[in-house]
Each structure stands twice: as structure tokens, then as C-alpha cells.
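Entry 12.
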Amino acid sequence: MNRKKGINSDCIRGADERVTLELMKEVGFDSFFTFQKELKELAAIKEKSVKLGLTGEFIHAPYKGINDMWLSGVSYWDIYKKLTDTIDNADSCDMRCVIIHVSSGDNAPQVNDLGLSRFDSLVEYAYKKNVVLAFENLRKIGNLGVIVERYEKIDTVKFCYDSGHRHCYTPQLEWIDVFSDKLFCTHIHDNLGRTVERIDDDLHLLPFDGNFDFKNMMTLLDRAGYEGTMMLEVFNTAHPLYRKLGAENFIKKAYSRLTKLFEL
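Predicted 3D structure (C-alpha cells):
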């Protein structure tokens, strides 16, 4: 399939993302995503991308404190406001998708009616602005399953497949098969799988620098009929060798690795 190639615009930590966009364009990337920021900064990044001919596909919402959405007796308003602000910015910058986490950590709260009512409100808020909420796979299979099934008839609720999270958090489940009908976008990166220590398994390495089975992933994506962008979520700080490459060479290497996926 003729899928686009993308990468996160903050892949070079600490760099001006507008400069990184220039390097991405020179190498051959088609699109990008970014993380939530102040609207002025996001607007500048989007303006630069338009001039370069790069497509800004989505904004990743903040996730620190996301468990508060499920807890009574705590203030959930801070994280809720951050999520609605991200939706507002996506609307203002015409990047009509927001990536969102359902919960966080190995000991995430159980799904409950209180949390579902809050997500109901969030889904309705995004729907009115015609912004897609793409929920990504993390540690808790059931939590995401409840969300996807609850909003299965709502067109603005989708699924974001994260290869790294699948490998180190839930290697027993083929998320692409389970949620193929809702599959909307991807986060592509590598790691060493689930380790005994479980300290920092989610490494965000370039493809083929870990041991994830990318050939199987591509087979599953083809079977699901996925025609969206293959979007890297990688960082030049993820490995000491990456730091030595320099920004331009790291982005070139990222593009080369992503291109290799298309050959599998």
C-alpha cells in the first residue's frame, strides 16, 4: 500500500521544531505530529509545515494525571482542562486528531461510571468540534476495550496503534486485529520487549534497533486494510549512539529505517 511516512516533530530533543521540520522535508518525510503546546507555538509550527508542504496529522494530548479521570475524591479538572485545550488547539490549527491515553501505569484505576461520564463529556466536546480522539494502546487491555466499544458508533472516536507499547506492555495481544475497524493512526517505534526489571521498557528506539517483529506488524496492517501514515514516535535521546549522529543524520536514519518497513 502507498502509505505516507511521518515522524514526531520533537524527535530532536530541545531543538526548534520548525527547524526540525525543514530537515524532515529535506529527507523525504510527508507528515508529522507534535505534542500539546501553547496555541501560539503550535500555530507557528503548523504555519511552517504548510510552507514546507508537510501535513500536520495530530496532536498528542498530555497524559500526566490521566488516572484522575477515573478517581473520586480528587480533582480531575486539571487533566480534563488540558485535554479540552488540546482539542481546541487541534481545531484552531486544523490538525483534526488528538491522541489520548485512557489510563497510565501498571496499577491504573478500574473503569467506573464516574470516569466514563467524564470521558462521555470529552468525547462530546471533541465531536462538536469535529476533532477525532484516537485512543492508544498501553498496559490495560480492558480499559481501552471498554472505551472503544462504548463509542464504537461515534465516528470521531478512533484507535491509535502503538507498536512499542504493544511489544513491551501487552505482547500477548494483537491490537490491530482486535480494533481494525477503528484503526486510524500509528506510533511506530522499537524496544527490547518486556524485561524482568520493568524499569523503562518503552524505549522509543528506531525500528530494528530492538527486537519487535515488524514484518508481522506490516502483515497485520495490510490485512486490516490500513492506508494511513506510518508515523514514527522516536527520539534522538533514546540511545547514546543516536546522540552522536547529530540532528540531520538522526532524521536521515529514521527515514531509512521507516522506508525499510515498506519493504517487508
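Annotation: The radius of gyration is 18 Å. Strands lie at 5-8, 31-35, 55-60, 97-100, 132-136, 157-162, 183-187, 230-232.
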